[in-house]
Write a structure and sequence with these properties.
InterPro entries: Beta-lactam/transpept-like, Glyco_trans_51, Glycosyltr_51/Transpeptidase, Lysozyme-like_dom_sf, PBP_transglycosylase, PCN-bd_Tpept. This is PBP1A family penicillin-binding protein. One of its GO terms (molecular function) is serine-type D-Ala-D-Ala carboxypeptidase activity. The protein is about 45% helix and about 10% strand. About 45% of the residues are buried. The protein has 24 helices and 18 strands. It is elongated. A hairpin with a 4-residue loop joins β15 and β16. The chain has 3 domains: about 240 residues, Penicillin binding protein transpeptidase fold, CATH 1.10.3810.10; about 300 residues, 3-Layer(aba) Sandwich (Beta-lactamase), CATH 3.40.710; about 70 residues, no CATH class. The protein is of the alpha+beta class.
């Protein structure tokens, strides 16, 4: 047991006095800093409300494709002219302690910091309404301590010089509600055709949810998400005693009637592209949409106006104007991921929902290149053979059966090669491959290629039953075509602030994500869909457009009862087209099934018309050889079809095709007989 001596007590008291003195010094210093900031904020007086500046959006050739004019749909109204439901809903979801704090909610900040620490990521915000108002009105987007200091200073200035009601009024009149609409009065008119004073509880709760993410929670973009967030806000309002249980039930069950004015949606140039670009800035780069809308930025995008115009005209001209069928279109540079053209629907004013970036649809056979890439990495080659015949597959430990069929029930009833299988889109071969390498492989490959939707580990996913987004599948094909380098869809090449300073540029670091040799072998096999010499028990899937193509392309089509896909690429450009009905209506007309392929083929030819013809370049580690596509063996003189095919070095066939030896011998005999006949004729003529 330790003995406490007078000397040890003396040392302990000294330590306590030292720590107390240091603590007091720190407290005095901190108090001095805080007091100085508060006095400085008070001395500066009330901040003037800056006039928002227009943000200009440029295409890749420097032309202007959009200009965000702020204030065009903004009306300032006082709090007395705003429904009490709006005030309560906004406070409930954005800042429950608004009337108690001095601009900073320290308890909420601590809670958010703890949540972020647990998740090791930014998962929760703690900004008060005053902070949001300060940030949106005055500050530029720069993740620095200087910006944080300025935000705090502006917040203090607002709290020091304006009442809580004035701050709340300013916030509600300047907050962004999507579609170029600012302020609660303009939002009430835009979404419901009424004034802010007339908004019901249900309507107010829905509008209060939009500023969190206008591209996510606008009912015109995603009605389901918007109304789900509305329900959450109503529940919080009940919890905070803003409404009763009865009012909650009434609001939840109220059917909202939205008003859309076509003249409120400015179509402009490439409106779906611009929406996708804005969404990418907010979701991927944390550049707030309201900041984009108000800070006088210059946004330089990847859009190619010529390609966009070609695509829009083709979609308009190719699809019967009387048809309700919809379309999605994406063209990208496979080396950089730069999106060159994008269409999310046939009429933006009628439906801003972006079918290229938001819709998840079953890709059908257009998923097969990812499956065959996985197979090549597992030892399959273009010469690998399996039998094409009606087959029933058992899975889930024998508890379930799956019996796929080929298109029109055409089968080879014989062995076919993988080279043929991808060109002819043989479903039996695909499912056998899927089951052989393990159903988990396609799921892992989908993640590797950047598909955000999980691919289920069941036999049917080999035929594209797990939904994907068009832009993600196009991006995946681009990775195959560029040799396996990682890319992601990019919409912006540079952003400058009002002072001309560059505040954003995309990362151009290269990352080899795929096996380069397997990616090339798969890509080269994909050129077979346009090679009519591979016609067999059925035609290659690209036979209808093959004659219109003038350069080498790799691609794959896909068809379901409700969807039609065509995704393909050259070394310079990868493009995907989807056509189908929004509400699950089946595609029954033959003409409608051809839209995707025809649009794709015509676009690729026109878009690349002024560019040199290039072929996919084989990397080191692959070897090419002429093979008989039916047997997969090295072609001989008698083989009716010979196709130059690439293999990962060491996996190429070594045996020669012997299927046509008799034909060769017969041909040789006929040639010899003809030679003898010619010799005899010459002799006879000489003698005569």
């Amino acid at each position: 047991m330790d003995v406490i001596t007078p000397k040890r007590i003396k040392i302990t008291l000294k330590t306590i006095r030292a720590l107390t003195f240091i603590g007091l010094l720190f407290f005095v210093f901190l108090s001095t800093v805080i007091l100085s900031v508060v006095l400085y904020a008070k001395w500066q007086g009330p901040p003037s409300l800056a006039v928002p500046q227009s943000t200009i959006i440029y295409a890749n050739d420097g032309s202007t494709i959009g200009e965000l004019h702020n204030g065009q749909k903004r009306y300032w109204v006082n709090l007395d002219s705003i429904s009490e439901h709006v005030l309560n809903a906004t406070l409930a979801i954005e800042d429950q302690n608004f009337h108690e704090h001095n601009g900073f909610d320290y308890k909420r900040i601590a809670g958010a910091a703890l949540a972020d620490l647990k998740a090791m990521a930014k998962v929760q915000g703690a900004s008060t309404i005053t902070q949001q108002y300060a940030r949106n009105l005055y500050l530029e987007h720069e993740k620095t301590w200087k910006r944080k200091f300025n935000e705090a200073l502006y917040t203090i200035r607002l709290e020091q010089n304006y009442s809580k009601n004035q701050i709340l009024e300013g916030y509600l009149n300047t907050i962004y509600y999507g579609h170029g609409v600012y302020g609660i009065e303009a939002a009430a008119n835009y979404y419901f055709g009424k004034s802010a004073k007339e908004l019901t509880l249900a309507e107010a709760a829905l509008l209060a949810g939009i500023p969190k993410g206008p591209n996510l929670y606008s009912p015109y973009i995603n009605k389901e998400k918007a109304e789900k967030r509305q329900s959450i806000i109503l529940e919080i309002m009940k919890k905070e005693d803003y409404i009763t249980e009865k009012e909650l039930d009434t609001a939840v069950n109220q059917k909202l009637v939205y008003k859309i004015k076509t003249n409120n949606i400015q179509k402009g140039i490439a409106p779906y592209f611009q929406d996708a670009m804005m969404s990418s800035l907010e979701n991927e780069h944390q550049i707030d949409e309201q900041m984009v809308q108000t800070q006088g930025l210059k946004i330089y995008t990847t859009l190619d106006p010529n390609m966009q115009e070609i695509a829009e005209k083709l979609v308009e001209q190719s699809i019967d104007e009387k048809s309700d069928i919809q379309a999605g279109f994406v063209a990208m540079d496979p080396k950089t991921g730069y999106v060159k053209a994008l269409i999310g629907g046939r009429d933006y004013a009628e439906s801003p929902f972006n079918r290229a970036t938001q819709a998840k649809r079953q890709p059908g056979s257009s998923i097969k290149p990812l499956l065959y890439y996985a197979a090549v990495t597992k030892g399959f080659t273009p010469s690998t053979e399996m039998k094409s015949e009606p087959t029933s597959f058992t899975y889930d430990n024998g508890k379930a059966n799956y019996k796929p069929s080929n298109y029109n029930d055409y089968y080879a009833d014989d062995f076919i090669t993988m080279l043929e299988a991808i060109a002819l889109s043989d479903n039996i071969f695909a499912v056998k491959t899927h089951m052989f390498i393990g159903m988990e492989e396609l799921a892992k490959t989908g993640e590797l290629f950047g598909l955000s939707s999980k691919i289920k580990q069941i036999p049917s996913t080999a035929l594209g039953t797990s939904p994907v987004r068009l832009i993600e599948l196009v991006n995946a094909y681009g990775m195959l075509g560029n040799g396996g380098n990682k890319i992601t869809p990019k919409f912006v090449t540079k952003i400058e602030n009002a002072d001309g300073e560059v505040i954003y540029k995309p990362d151009k670091t290269k990352e080899q994500l795929l096996n380069e040799q397997a990616a090339f072998v798969t890509t080269h096999m994909m050129t077979g869909m346009f090679d009519t010499s591979l016609n067999s028990y059925t035609s290659v899937t690209g036979h209808s457009i093959a004659d219109s193509l003038t350069r080498e392309y790799a691609g794959k089509s896909g068809t379901t009862s409700t969807d039609s896909w065509m995704v393909g690429m050259s070394p310079q450009l990868v493009t995907g087209v989807w056509t189908g009905y929004d509400k699950g209506k089946t595609i029954n007309l033959v003409q409608e099934r051809s839209y995707a392929k025809n649009i794709w083929a015509t676009f690729m030819e026109k878009a690349l018309d002024d560019q040199s013809v290039k072929a996919f370049t084989p990397p080191d580690g692959v070897v090419g050889a002429y093979v008989n596509p039916e047997s997969g063996k090295l072609a001989t003189k008698g083989c009716p079809v010979k196709r130059y095919t690439y293999f990962i070095t060491g996996t190429e066939p070594t045996d020669y095709c012997e299927d046509h030896i008799d034909e060769v011998e017969e041909n040789d005999a006929n040639e010899n007989k003809q030679e003898e006949d010619r010799w005899f004729d010459k002799l006879f003529k000489w003698w005569d």
